Amino acid sequence: MNKIKIPQVLHKMNEIFSQNGFEAYLVGGAVRDVLLGKEASDWDVTTNAKPDEVIKIFRRVIPTGIEHGTVTVHFMGEEIEVTTFRTESDYSDGRHPDKVEYCGHIEEDLSRRDFTMNAIAAGLEDGHIVDPYGGENDIKKKIIRTVGNAHERFSEDGLRPVRALRFASKLQFSIEKDTYSEIFKEDIQKKIVSISVERFRDEFMKMMESPLPSIGLKLMEETGILKLFIPEMMEGRNCIQKDDRGYHIFDVLDHNIYACDGAPKENPLLRLTAFLHDSGKPRAKVERIVDGIKINNFFNHEKYSAEIAKKVMTRLKFSNTEIDYVTHLIENHMFHYTSDWSDAAVRRFIVKVGLENIDDLIDLRLADMYGKYNEPVRMHDTASCALLVELTDRVKKIAEEQNALSLKDLKVNGNDLINAGIPAGKNLGRILNELFQTVLDDPKMNDKEKLLNLALNLK
After folding, report:
1. Strands 143-144 and 174-175, bridge-based pairing
2. What value, to the nearest 5°, has the Cα angle with vertex 297 and ends 292 and 303?
3. CA dihedral of 383, 384, 388, 390, whole degrees rounded to 10
4. Rounded to an integer, what distance in angstroms lies between the CA atom of residue 205 and that of residue 213?
5. What separation in angstroms does the CA of 94 have from each of 112, 156, 288, 331?
6. Would you list the DSSP string of 148-172?
7. CA-CA distances (angstroms) from residue 3 to 31, 34, 82, 130?
8. CATH number of the domain enclosing 68
9. Rounded to an integer, what is the distance from CA 177 to the centroid of its chain?
10. Which of 102, 142, 261, 290 is spaced 20 to 30 A from 365 at the CA atom?
């Protein structure tokens, strides 16, 4: 392909560059995605105009990375990152180039990029392709290959090997053998482990958005990167779950990996939850023989798994909100709903889990089921799925009935009880909680007069 279609907004942007005597090209992932027949969502532009010149010729420019030659141009309702042609040399910290120099040709700029598929440019005027490293051909062959010497590229930035695995997962490409073999080298492994945990975390979470994260996760295990950053997960390798009951066919690690595939792509944090949800099973495993039948039990594994998840996520510097979300779902994923649950039991379940978390918990359970056999779960096809549908319907009905599902939903509050003659203090809190438990059992009791009379009897 000699040309690609350039969006109208970039044509307009090019007119301004051209009128001021500059060249401009679309580069990176956007060109790759167009060549793959996909919609490009983010546009990165490179130009021979220096940052101060870009600032002069466009009205709204934010100097987001001006020390590296990058600014963000607000143009026709879009935010477009614009970087001056540059070359880089010496990466003593394994991430940032010690020296950045502006250059005059697009080919020189492309030489600094990580993979051939990302080292393709398209002129903004007519979309003509500039591809000095055979990236288009590698895209056709579905191959990930470094620009130039793989050892040099990976030595420059320890995140690049992780990015290679992420792209393999996202695009379902294979990594060219010489490129892949370099990841195993001792000095490259040291370079990888030297990257900040935040950079690894961000790349890892992008992997969670892949169609099949299992591709990248298995490559991470094979290359040793998983052990470098999340060693706890390796405890699940060869921890056998299958017993004479036939509940599982995979060991714990593969089960977690495939469960990750089974969680919704649109919720990468839930996919992370699925990956970590049974991480504590090796620490909880008990092998028993009951009536001549071999049984593997994992009592309270959700507790161990939540502890591991918290440790992993804290180390990778996730936010407290994200950690609380993941550990809460893991702690509650072993619920056992049956049709004979009373409405009060369902209300208590909602209070325990949180109405806002119910859908995600159901999705986690479905991901868990997916991970048992690495097969999609079809609702209504099994008794277990039918029960989940039933539970979801009952939760929805209770929510629509506007039942009291928290203390703030009670028709009385602390001030009401104080005005009725109940002193403030711990006893008042105990009474409020008992009133709430009463209303969970019988929603008709959520009446101010009834609750005040009951409170006076409880004081």
Report:
1. parallel
2. 170
3. 20
4. 10
5. 14, 5, 50, 38
6. S-HHHHHHH-THHHHHHHHHHHHH-
7. 10, 10, 21, 9
8. 3.30.460.10
9. 28
10. 290
Asked whether residue 127 is assigned to any structural domain, the reply reads yes
Do 377 and 413 contact (CB within 8 A), yes or no?
no
Positions in the chain short of pLDDT 70: 1, 88-100, 379-381
Question: Same domain for 247 and 158?
Answer: no
Residue with tokens 């975390």: 201
Q: What is the pLDDT of residue 292?
A: 86
Residues 159 and 278: beta-carbon distance below 8 Å: no
Same domain, 277 and 326: yes
Total domains, the chain: 4
CATH number at residue 249: 1.10.3210
C-alpha span between 285 and 252 (Å, rounded): 11
Based on the fold, state whether residues 203 and 311 are members of the same structural domain: no
Residue 436 lies in a domain: yes
Where a domain ends, among 176, 198, 229?
Answer: 229
**134 lies in the same domain as 15:** yes
pLDDT digits (tens, 9 = 90+) for 302-337: 999 999 999 999 999 999 999 999 999 999 999 999
The label of the residue with tokens 């490179």 reads 46
- Specify the pLDDT at position 376: 86
pLDDT at 229: 98
Helix (H, G, I), strand (E, B) or coil at 252: helix
